[in-house]
Design brief:
Number of strands: 11
Order of helices and strands: HHEHEHEHHHEEHEHEHEEEHHEHHHHH
Distance between the termini: 18 Å
Strand content: 5-15%
Length: 402
């Protein structure tokens, strides 16, 4: 089996696991040395989706330790950049940091390979974020070749999440393969660039910080990114008003890590609490994506600035290419993955399992017509993932604390 078989545990039992006797709690807490941990996040600040979730995570740990553990935060690459975080956290420059494994394929070959599972998605935001995120979360915490890979860099995986599907945000209308032919699309990574090529586009590599101006000046035509960038981050609505909702891979397994020496020095009581806090942080990020995608959806639905293109001629091409990408993953697996096809099959089964859990909660997978896409955006602000979170907590989290 690629994944552990989880035993369902009630929420009450889960809470009981984290509660020690008063005497025992006092003993480990009395022996805990006060410390301030440094967190480095290159992706944004405390108001961004990741930032808000991690600040809440920090606050819960500070409260649990009676103020003995506090945090210093370094946002927007002020301490470590995207390419420096793995070594920086492993070396102790920071104690906690955000890793995008595909940025470091030589250092994280298994993590980078897993990134390709981002092509196994539906395009339906709720399901891609929550079901895709749940599959990513349990995988990065339990898949031994991956946890060992991170440990070899002296870091411990805390949690990982998945984004909504990437689409095309363009400065020119694109609805057909003829429209797409030769258009330049910023696509960083094979999981996206190969889909762009299948559509007839030319992938280009443009720095994130130059993307707004590049679209504005026509240096390239489209940005491969999720639509929340209309309302968050680069705020592309004025330079890429053509929304082309063709389904491209999600960013899979954005991973938060902690220095392994720091983690190993924690008592088990604290490790178990942090494990539960990690899952809660992932849930907060899932909910955060619902909020920011809903804000983008309001702009898309208004139709006065952003025009939604009909992608009925493009979607089958992208879907076929993404399926082919996933089908070929086993052939490109690192040597440390002993049975890659079993892993790919099991991973897809876990996405399906968590998707069915959402359907059971009343969230049907949205179709990819322009009308259905706008309707799906309109419902995101009402999404409640609390039952889904409790299911994950009862089935998966206890096994993480053994």
């Amino acid at each position: 089996m690629t994944f552990k078989t989880w035993t369902s545990v009630s929420a009450v039992a889960l809470i009981a696991m984290s509660v020690t006797s008063q005497a025992t709690a006092q003993e480990w807490l009395d022996n805990l040395e006060p410390m301030t941990l440094k967190l480095a996040d290159f992706s944004g600040d405390q108001n961004a989706n990741f930032g808000k979730a991690m600040v809440a995570w920090e606050e819960s740990i500070t409260e649990f330790t009676g103020g003995k553990i506090t945090f210093e935060n370094y946002w927007s690459s002020s301490l470590l950049g995207a390419l420096d975080t793995l070594s920086g956290v492993g070396d102790g420059v920071a104690d906690i940091g955000l890793i995008i494994p595909s940025y470091m394929p030589q250092e994280l070959p298994v993590g980078s390979w897993l990134f390709g599972m981002g092509a196994a998605l539906s395009g339906s935001t709720v399901h891609d974020v929550a079901a895709g995120g749940a599959a990513a979360l349990e995988t990065v915490l339990t898949f031994e070749p991956l946890t060992q890979e991170y440990a070899s860099h002296n870091v411990k995986v805390l949690q990982a999440t998945a984004t909504p599907a990437y689409n095309l945000l363009c400065n020119t209308p694109i609805s057909t393969p003829e429209d797409a032919q030769g258009k330049r699309a910023r696509a960083i990574g094979a999981v996206w660039s190969q889909t762009a090529e299948a559509l007839g586009m030319t992938p280009v590599s443009i720095a994130w910080g130059e993307a707004y101006e590049g679209l504005q000046r026509g240096v390239f035509d489209c940005m491969v990114i999720n639509p929340n960038q209309y309302a968050d981050g680069l705020v592309l609505k004025d330079v890429a008003p053509e929304y082309v909702p063709v389904t491209m891979a999600q960013l899979q397994a954005s991973t938060w890590v902690m220095n392994l020496d720091v983690w190993n020095d924690f008592p088990k009581e604290l490790q178990d609490f942090i494990t539960q806090a990690n899952v809660k942080a992932a849930y907060d990020i899932w909910e955060g994506y619902m909020d920011i995608e809903a804000k983008a959806g309001e702009l898309i639905a208004a139709g006065d600035v952003i025009h939604t293109n009909d992608v009925s001629a493009l979607e089958p091409i992208a879907k076929e290419q993404r399926a082919a990408y996933v089908a070929g993953l086993a052939d490109t697996a690192p040597d440390s993955v002993s049975d890659p096809q079993a892993f790919v099959d099991d991973y897809q089964a876990r996405i399906a399992y968590w998707t069915e859990a959402l359907v059971a909660d009343g969230y049907e997978v949205a179709e990819r017509t322009p009308e259905a896409i706008v309707d799906a955006f309109a419902g995101l602000s009402e999404v409640d993932l609390s039952n889904f979170y409790e299911k994950f907590n009862s089935e998966v989290t206890p096994g993480l604390m053994n």
